[in-house]
Amino acid sequence: MAIAPYLPPSSKRFPEGKRSKLALLLANDSPLRTIFYLETWLLLAACMQSLLFLVLPTLYAALPALLLLLVKIADTVLVSAGIMKNPYLRGSIQTRVSSQLPDSNGEIKAPGQEKIAVLLLGNKTNHPLGIFAPGVRDLGDHFMGMMKELYGDQESTGFLGASQWEHTDDNGIAEGVNISYWRSIEDVHRFAHGPVHRRAWNWWDKNAKDFAHIGLMHEVFEAPAGMWEGVYLNFQPTLIGSTTVLKKGDKLEGGQVSDEWIRPLVDASRGPMRQSKGRRGQLVKVEEHSDAYSS
């Protein structure tokens, strides 16, 4: 019996989120936040506030900041008191789930049956201009070109999905790390030698001597089947749980075959999925715990 995914399949690989464009722009994972150091943003805000005091009466100059602060305080109080719904829980899965990678047909037939490869691709800009430093825009364009190709052709690349993370080094410089998941390390190497990445590679080899301020790194490794697992509680789908696998449609809808995208998350609150060995397919008699499965 196949294991049922916890989340329903989707006709789109990544359904559109509910955040507005402004919210996305100002979010913690937005590149806008890392253009300058925190102190630079504070100084810019202080300058803007000072200009308001120069051109407006004191009350009117102070009012916008005071109103925004009051709104934030009221929001925090109402959410903490349970009067207002907690917006930070949107999309959170309020139970224990485990990542189980579907096979090439989009089926999760048993736990711990698929291997997985992980590529960590990092960059940083050791320059006071940050993302405006020489070469950074070109680097970003090459990276977006690679992501566009990967997300557009999963079947031939073995690419499953990626998450973007950030770290701050000892000098206060933001290091961006793209964590991507693949079917195998061979898929990673095949893409690395493909035309899109090759163009980026050639661009870097040609210009690297002029861009000593740009740091690049990668780490890649493969975990055999049964030698990796993931557990998430009160989390939105993230990392392996945020990847998707295409399940080719076997029925016609409106004259077309209906394909579905499957998230690799399954219920881990009961049955063999409650144990590490169960999640890795290492239990001797997994079939005795049939309550985690569906026909």
Q: How would you characterize this protein structure?
A:
- With 295 residues, the chain is of the alpha+beta class.
- It has eight helices and eleven strands.
- Strands 3-4-2-5 form a four-stranded antiparallel sheet. A three-stranded antiparallel sheet has the order 6-1-11, with no helix packed on it.
- Helix 2 crosses helix 3 and helix 4 packs antiparallel against helix 7.
- It is globular.
- The relative contact order is 0.19.
Helices, by number, come to: 8
Helix and strand element order = HHHEEHHEEHHEEEEEEEH
Main structural class:
alpha+beta
Taking the alpha carbons of the first and last residues, their distance comes to 5 Å
Explain the layout of strands and helices.
Elements: H1 21-26, H2 38-55, H3 58-80, E1 93-99, E2 116-125, H4 136-152, H5 154-157, E3 159-168, E4 174-182, H6 185-192, H7 195-207, E5 214-223, E6 231-235, E7 245-247, E8 252-253, E9 256-257, E10 260-262, E11 265-267, H8 276-279
Antiparallel strand pairs: 1-6, 1-11, 2-4, 2-5, 3-4, 7-10, 8-9
Helix pairs in contact: 2-3, 4-7
Which tags fit this structure?
globular; disordered C terminus; 22% strand; 295 residues; alpha+beta; three-stranded antiparallel sheet; four-stranded antiparallel sheet
Short description, anyone?
This protein has about 300 residues and is an alpha+beta fold.
